[in-house]
Design goal:
This protein has one domain: Glutaredoxin. The protein has 6 helices and 10 strands. It has helices at about 30-35, 50-65, 90-95, 110-115, 155-165, 185-189, and strands at about 5, 20, 25-30, 40-45, 70-75, 105, 120, 125, 135, 175-180. The strands form 2 sheets. It has a 7-stranded mixed beta sheet. Strands 1-10-7 form a 3-stranded antiparallel beta sheet, with helices on one face. Strand 4, helix 2 and strand 5 form a beta-alpha-beta unit. Helix 2 runs parallel beside helix 5 (about 155-165).
Amino acid sequence: MVSLNPPVCDFGTKAPDFKLLGVDGKTWTLQDCMGRNGLLVMFICNHCPYVKAVHGRILRDTRELMGYGINSVAIMSNDTVNYPDDSYENMKKIAAEYKYPFPYLIDETQEIAKAYGAVCTPDFFGYNTDFELQYRGRLDASRKDTAPDGTRRDLFEAMKQVAHTGQGPQDQISSIGCSIKWKEEAAEA
């Protein structure tokens, strides 16, 4: 397991479009996912200890952000052959068990992760209604262990600001997580 920090926000970068299969059997596009005040795109997976440490907080924050007009979508881009815990069938089980309030999509070709520049799980991308990047930071101070209750909710506060102003905060702390598990042919290319 390699721990990585993604780069911080490149403000204004347009969100790459996608057309991906969700665990609900529906094919989702970027436009389908957008909320009235913005969109949070999350690269997550089922097996990563960093994702597991914040899983409950992701669910809490995405549910609360819906009240501010911010929709969310989760994309799983890992190699499912070498990481079967992240298979489409297991994605369906996890989404049902935790009643995901957002589409959970599989990026089988890994092209969408590459288009976004995603490097780890979790990796968060917050967009305004013009599909312009406004946040590329951490959920909170959690690492492989959940940060204490009362910890500043970096992502939630940033996306709330995007909902109100269309712009994210200038100061952002990058996320940390496990590297995306690239397919061997993709890694060699």
